[in-house]
Amino acid sequence: MIKLLLLLTLLFFNGCEEKAKPRVIIKPELQLPIKCLKLDKLDIEHDFLDELDRLYRFDSSCDLRLSISYKKNIICNSTSNVSLKATGHFPKSFLKLEVRKGMKSLYSYYIDLYSNVDRDDIDEGFIKLKRDLFQKSIKK
């Protein structure tokens, strides 16, 4: 009985430590590696703008535009999500990084977060974006 209780406790804590994985979409028409990015600064917190400026030198003349969207303190009052909310697996925020040329989306990074979006999440997402888009792709 004690072994079963210990096993269940370990499984519970492992489940709580689970980190969400981002969903990344790269359209085949995007020419890799890219040379530059322009930042769409609309509706981005000052701290996040400072962090992005620290990570990359954006080019205002570039035709590829990076937009960032996020939401904090998500509250869902729907009864269909009761089990997710009760187990703590309902996201508290999300982060989306999207690269567009004109109106066409060419790259998207999206992650649900179980805490509010912060600078570390911006770092992690942008570093993934840089690996995906600025390094020479390997054709398989």
Description:
The chain has helices at 2-16, 46-55, 82-86, 119-134; strands at 23-26, 38-40, 64-71, 93-101, 104-113. By secondary structure, it is an alpha+beta fold. The protein has one domain (20-134). α2 packs parallel to α4.
Sheet with the most strands: spatial strand order: 1-5-4-3-2
What is the helix fraction of residues, given as a range? 25-40%
Order of helices and strands: HEEHEHEEH
Shape call:
globular
Mean pLDDT: 80
Radius of gyration (Å): 19 Å
SS summary, helix count: 4
Low-confidence stretches: 82-86
Supply the helix-strand structural class: alpha+beta
Quick one: biggest sheet?
5 strands, mixed
**Total number of distinct structural domains:** 1
Strand segment tally: 5
Question: Distance between termini?
Answer: 52 Å
Give the SSE layout.
Blueprint (H helix, E strand, L loop, with lengths): L1 H15 L6 E4 L11 E3 L5 H10 L8 E8 L10 H5 L6 E9 L2 E10 L5 H16 L6
Parallel strand pairs: 2-3
Antiparallel strand pairs: 1-5, 3-4, 4-5
Helix pairs in contact: 2-4
